[in-house]
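Sequence, please.
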């Protein structure tokens, strides 16, 4: 069938303009939409309305104009941001203009956190004050400590982390817009800054506590004379040694670099959760709890843990081809590969590879590295992965480093979320400082049943209790037992 192009949009007759023209072929209506910063406002499409008279309109149509359907936000920008830029095709990442490789080599985590949150590298005195403030907000209230202590020894450390931050909101009523007024963080910037240092300060303490309940050891009080990552390692590992005990500085440095690499990554699943939840003006502790919960799934920050489980399952280099075959048959996922944005190797994974060698020098080589290298090499030569532009991401190597350093598997996402708090807070602040915050409220395209009338249960058609829908999916033994009791 021949497709005709309307003459109005034939490129040869158009003078270049910074706009697009959209023609609604249902009605012939044409609209011009301005392009700004390589984006167009989705609201422009609401001018295009279906041609039906009200009575004739199909149930699933809308009188409010055309919607943009973008499940999983494949091509929808949620915010305008000055914080982080990723060029996925080139494998390039920068924060506030500084390439990640330079920050990893020359900066420290706390300095990068300042850069992300406040937009510029701090002067020496600013950095000293910033670090001092964070390291003096590391204590966690006694009642909160007791609450954390009540968690089971086998709790996933991320559920402890998420719960602790959700509870922290209850320990800071002065920081709660629900109690103090919805414009609290719009009006009171010193209070906003105070919550930022408190959240960054307490994150490592809560992380260490989540680990200490696993090993059934008392909590170690934080030390303000250590660096951010040294203090985390100290609180995790200090036992009966004198208080002068210091973690190995090479490992603290390696962890600091890993923290820089994880500090922000623009609108990923958890940071967009922070922005989404923050748009309701709820307190920042609740926002952090929500964002951290989003991070801990295996497709996001839980992938580093999943990589090690995958490599352990593969076991040895000779099993790599079989495993890749199963991935290609879509029976397995190659964890640590692929990314929504990168169509090239994630630049963080290149830096991480060097950190891995630093750590292996101190802790010994992680035996699974051979499997990891063989798997990566085989995948990068395979058409299935190259044609889909699947390359190693940050999680591919980070898990191996954490394993070599002796962290338990389920602690890996904690080592991702603690540094990511800097990114969450940078986006939270940017949003509230912009003066343009509006509550996030996506639309949906309704494809369900049309209007129908309620039928009383006595007159409803009988249906068997089998299948996978709703309550029918309850395991049979439970429903059977319950039914017998009745
Ligand atoms: N293993 C096997 N196949 C994959 C993988 C993978 N890891 N990732 C993508 N694909 C395939 C996918 O099946 C699809 O194939 P087809 O075209 O035949 O349907 C194609 O590649 C396109 O993938 P997609 O699912 O459309 O990609 P996405 O952008 O929706 O997903 C992702 C991105 C990161 C969730 C995905 O690549 C994935 O599940 N990776 C493994 C988990 C992982 O490593 N996550 C960490 C991400 S980086 C750190 C972070 O941001 O948290």
């Amino acid at each position: 069938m021949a497709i005709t192009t309307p003459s109005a949009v034939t490129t040869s007759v158009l003078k270049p303009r910074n706009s697009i023209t959209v023609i609604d072929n249902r009605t012939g209506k044409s609209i011009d939409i301005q392009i700004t910063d390589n984006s167009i406002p989705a609201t422009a499409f609401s001018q295009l309305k279906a041609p039906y008279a009200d009575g004739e309109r199909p149930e699933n149509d809308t009188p409010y104009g055309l919607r943009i359907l973008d499940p999983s936000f494949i091509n929808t920008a949620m915010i305008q941001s000055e914080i982080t830029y990723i060029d996925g095709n080139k494998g390039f990442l920068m924060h506030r203009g500084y390439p990640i490789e330079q920050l990893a080599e020359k900066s420290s985590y706390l300095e990068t956190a300042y850069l992300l949150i406040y937009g510029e590298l701090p002067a020496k005195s600013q950095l000293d004050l910033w670090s001092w403030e964070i390291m003096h907000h590391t204590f966690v209230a006694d009642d909160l400590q007791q609450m954390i202590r009540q968690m089971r020894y086998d709790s996933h450390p991320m559920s402890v982390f998420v719960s602790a931050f959700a509870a922290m909101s209850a320990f800071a009523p002065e920081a709660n817009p629900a109690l103090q007024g919805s414009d609290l963080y719009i009006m009171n910037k010193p209070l906003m800054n105070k919550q930022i240092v408190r959240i960054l300060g307490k994150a490592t303490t809560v992380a260490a506590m989540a680990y200490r309940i696993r090993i059934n050891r008392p909590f170690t009080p934080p030390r303000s004379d250590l660096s951010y990552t040294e203090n985390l390692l100290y609180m995790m590992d200090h036992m009966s040694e004198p208080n002068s005990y210091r973690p190995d500085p090479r490992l603290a440095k390696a962890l600091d670099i890993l923290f820089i690499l994880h500090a922000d990554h623009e609108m990923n699943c958890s940071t967009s959760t922070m922005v989404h939840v923050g748009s309701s003006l709820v307190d920042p502790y609740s926002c952090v709890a929500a964002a951290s919960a989003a991070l801990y799934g295996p497709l996001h920050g839980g992938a580093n843990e999943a990589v090690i489980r995958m490599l352990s399952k593969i076991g040895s280099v000779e099993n790599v081809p079989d495993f890749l075959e199963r991935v290609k048959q879509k029976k397995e996922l190659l964890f640590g590969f692929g990314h929504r944005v990168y169509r090239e190797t994630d630049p963080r994974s290149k830096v991480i590879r060097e950190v891995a060698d630093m750590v292996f020098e101190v802790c010994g080589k992680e035996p699974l590295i051979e499997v990891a290298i063989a798997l990566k090499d085989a995948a990068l030569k395979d058409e299935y992965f190259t044609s889909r532009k699947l390359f190693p991401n940050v999680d591919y190597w980070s898990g191996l480093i954490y394993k070599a350093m002796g962290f338990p598997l389920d602690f890996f996402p904690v080592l991702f979320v603690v540094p990511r708090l800097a990114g969450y807070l940078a986006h939270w602040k940017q949003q509230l400082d912009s003066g343009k915050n509006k509550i996030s409220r996506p639309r949906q395209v309704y494809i369900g049943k049309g209007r129908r009338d309620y039928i009383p249960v006595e007159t409803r058609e009988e249906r068997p209790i089998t299948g996978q829908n709703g309550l029918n999916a309850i395991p049979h033994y439970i429903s059977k037992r319950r039914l017998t009791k009745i």
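The pocket of carboxymethyl coenzyme *A is lined by residues 265, 268, 299-301, 303, 327, 333-340, 388, 390, 393-395 (CB under 6 Å).
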